[in-house]
């Protein structure tokens, strides 16, 4: 069973999320929080597997609450929620340690799937939405890094996969583009994460834009 904490400043939103999860035996809603400070306190008390976190809340916003949980409770994964699908706070939450992001108008099925995804330690952000967000809100250097300069000791193949990942391609699309297997792509991505010192796909894409490896607007579809 996946233990879930709901954090949103609107009681109706919290209740709606709880009602979505209640019929599914895979989930147990262990608590509700009305602001980021309360969310952090309850997370330490209840040790949920996943916190569904609104990123715009009073007292302590969801971005800072996410950063605090990533620092003090790394086993608890945060799924960020926003009213808008294009929101600079979403990028800040991903940089702070959120494992995924959903706009609040998603379907119940999408919410359930995203909670399962972040619980396994994977990033729950559609690759092309992630690229759109980051290209809109991450400030890249004025002079992009030459693509031949591989940072952090990346091999030429890893550099190529990092660029495709940052352009919004998923693993299957990268495999088809390079004519290699999906499992090989996954192995390369694991190595890329290790060498870049990032935790997941979202942070790897942010790093690509911040390094100038990918120009703002590239691959944003």
Short description:
This protein has 221 residues and is an alpha/beta fold. It has helices spanning 11-21, 36-46, 62-72, 88-96, 108-119, 127-137, 156-166, 171-178, 182-196, 201-211; strands at 2-7, 27-33, 50-54, 77-82, 100-103. The protein has a five-stranded parallel β-sheet, sandwiched between helices.
What does this structure look like?
The chain is α/β, with parallel strands linked by helices and 221 residues long. 50% of the residues lie in helices and 13% in strands. It contains ten helices and five strands. It has a five-stranded parallel beta sheet, with helices on both faces. β1, α1 and β2 form a beta-alpha-beta unit. α2 runs parallel beside α3 and α8 crosses α9. The longest helix has 15 residues. The chain is globular.
Poorly predicted ranges: 144-149
Major β-sheet, in short?
Answer: 5 strands, parallel
**Through-space gap between termini:** 37 Å
Q: Beta fraction of the residues?
A: 5-15%
